[in-house]
Amino acid sequence: MSEDRIVLKVENLRKWFTIRRGLFGATAQVKALDGVTFELGTGEAVSVVGESGSGKTTLGKTVLRLYEPTDGKLIFKGKDITHTPEKDLMWFKRETGLVQQDPYGAMPSFMNIYRILEEPLIIHKVGTKEERAEMVFKALEEVRLTPVEDFAFKYPHMLSGGQLQRVAIARALILRPSLVVADEPVSMLDASVRVEILTLMREMQEKRNISFIYITHDLSTTRYFSEWIFIMYAAQLIERAPTKTLLQNPLHPYTRALLSAIPDPDPENRKKFREVPPGEPPSLVNPPPGCRFAPRCPFASSKCRTEEPPEVEVEPKHFVKCWLYAGAKA
Ligand SMILES: Nc1ncnc2c1ncn2[C@@H]1O[C@H](COP(=O)(O)OP(=O)(O)OP(=O)(O)O)[C@@H](O)[C@H]1O
């Protein structure tokens, strides 16, 4: 990808948390993000898919610099922001937005919707009072909370989960950011409104040419909402490719297992459930030395258990971290 199209460049990014085991116990490191590399272009959306505890939220929060990386590099629009102090990150905060899983938890309950949407504009000193009012009403209209006067002066608890997630989207986009992270944005909503909300986000993302990181544990929705899919397992990206390529030609045994676990109305295909390898993801305090999926992988060799596989580009833009594909090149 040409350098001027790249919005976000992530190189070997790590985020380790220090935890204490027991009341007086020794400290240990949870390697929540452990060597992640990718690039994201202007207006591109990526779905990051992985099971609970694989490090998706840590990835999202680290690229937004809500966490400071432990190691690696984070480059946004050509600027290295890996360790930039918080006080010098105002410009970056203005360029980025976050939509979280739980809209009620993410909104201050004592503010009305108008105030919630006006707040980022005030913090970043955007517009006069009148201009801000215009922007707030326009934002409500864009997320289809109309008539806007009916919604603007309500409080979060007066709205449904779906309506409040629309407010969260409006808030994340009101400063016209170029990068947005949506962390499981629909998993707490009623099934009936999930597609509506995902469609709204996709529409806004395409209209405004926003780069988008959509975090989910549900591989089945991703195909409609992103150009790329990244598969995360035990704090690492084990496969990444354009959406169509990944769905048509999944390579990593874990990705194949995930895809075959998607409920399929065809009873013949349901048999594929049996292919999902049993077992749990490894501890992130003491991950296994080789491939992290090796303990569950039906194809694991002794090399897989001792040596970490490199990431290789098997076909154009299709990367996989697995000895089945790296062996020949190693
Ligand atoms: N602040 C923290 N301190 C210590 N450990 C943490 C912290 N945040 C996350 N972790 C640990 O890091 C690992 C990855 O967590 P993370 O929340 O990023 O995963 P996830 O894929 O988003 O999971 P989920 O889908 O359940 O939200 C987990 O083992 C988690 O317990």
Structure summary:
Helix content is 33%, strand content 24%.
Descriptive notes:
By secondary structure, this protein is of the alpha/beta class. Helices cover 33% and strands 24% of the residues. It has a domain at 3-95 and 215-329: Rossmann fold, CATH 3.40.50. The chain has helices at 56-63, 90-94, 103-106, 113-123, 129-142, 148-152, 161-173, 191-208, 219-222, 243-248, 253-260, 267-270, 302-306, 323-326, and strands at 6-20, 27-41, 45-49, 71-76, 79-80, 96-99, 179-183, 211-216, 228-233, 236-242, 311-315, 318-321. α4 packs across α5 and α7 runs parallel beside α8. Bound molecules: adenosine-5'-triphosphate. Adenosine-5'-triphosphate is lined by residues 17, 19, 30, 32, 50, 52-58, 217, 284. Adenosine-5'-triphosphate (ATP) is lined by residues 17, 19, 30, 32, 50, 52-58, 217, 284.
User: How far from one another are the termini?
Assistant: 26 Å
Tally of strands: 12
Distinct small-molecule ligands in the complex: adenosine-5'-triphosphate
Query: What strand order characterises the main sheet?
Result: 6-7-8-3-9-10-12-11
CATH topology of the domain at 3-95 and 215-329: Rossmann fold
User: CATH homologous superfamily of the domain at 3-95 and 215-329, by name?
Assistant: P-loop containing nucleotide triphosphate hydrolases
Strand content: 15-25%
Low-confidence stretches: 270-275
Secondary structural class = alpha/beta
Averaged pLDDT, please?
91
Total helix count? Answer: 14
CATH class assignment of the domain at 3-95 and 215-329: Alpha Beta
